[in-house]
Amino acid sequence: MKNEWDKLYEALAEVQDEMEELLPELPQSKNFTQRSNNLKRRWALVQKLANDLNEMILPANPIPVKSPFDHVDFVTAWQMWKEYLQEQHHITMRSRMEVCGLKRLAEISNTEYMLAIRILEFAMSGGYKGFFRIDEKSQSRPITETTETINY
After folding, report:
1. What are the angstrom distances between the C-alpha of 121 and each of 67, 73, 95, 97, 111?
2. What is the pLDDT of residue 142?
3. 24/125 Cα distance (integer angstroms)
4. Closest C-alpha to 90, from 132, 129, 131
5. pLDDT means per 10 residues in the chain (152 residues)?
6. How far apart are CA 113 and CA 119, in angstroms?
7. What whole-number distance in Å separates Cα of residue 118 and Cα of residue 105?
8. Residue 26 confidence (pLDDT)
9. Is residue 129 within 8 Å of residue 91, measured between CB atoms?
C-alpha cells in the first residue's frame, strides 16, 4: 500500500507543479481570477487531506523492542501471536504496541515464559484480540481443553 500511496503523492505534486506553471500563462480576466482563486482554495484542501492521510499511512519511526523473555519457545510463540493478530483481526503490531504488549504480558505472567506462552495460546484459541491473566476457572472453560503448552 505504501508504494501505491507514494505514487499518488508524487502524482499530486506533479499536478501542483503544472498548475503553478500554467495559471500565470492563461489570459487574465475577472472571471478567470475568481475561478483560479477558487481552484487554488480547493487544491489547498486536497493537499491538506493528502498530508493528513500521509501521517496515517507512514508510521512514526519505530522504537527498539526488547523482550523480557529470551527463551526460543517464547520468541516463536510471540511471532505466532503477531501473525495471528494480522491474520485474524487485521491488526499490524508496530513497535510501540509490541513494547507495551510485552510489558503487559510480563506483568500478568510474572515473567514466567511458559505461563506467557499459555496466555498467548489461550487468547489465540479463543479468538481474542488481546490477552489477559488466566486462572483455573478460565482454563476449565470448554474453549481450551488442555493447559499444556504446544511445542512449535
Report:
1. 18, 12, 21, 19, 16
2. 47
3. 64
4. 129
5. 79 87 83 86 88 77 93 97 95 93 96 96 95 76 46 48
6. 10
7. 11
8. 82
9. yes
For residue 134, how many other CB atoms are within 10 A of its CB? 20
Q: With CA atoms as reference, report the closest residue to 130 among 119, 146, 140.
A: 119
What letter represents residue 137's amino acid? K
Distance CA 16, CA 128 (A): 46
Burial label, 146 (beta-carbon count in 10 A; 0-12, 13-18, 19+): exposed
Q: Phi then psi for 46, rounded to 5 degrees? A: -60, -45
Residue bearing cell 519511526: 61
CB atoms within 10 A of CB 73: 16
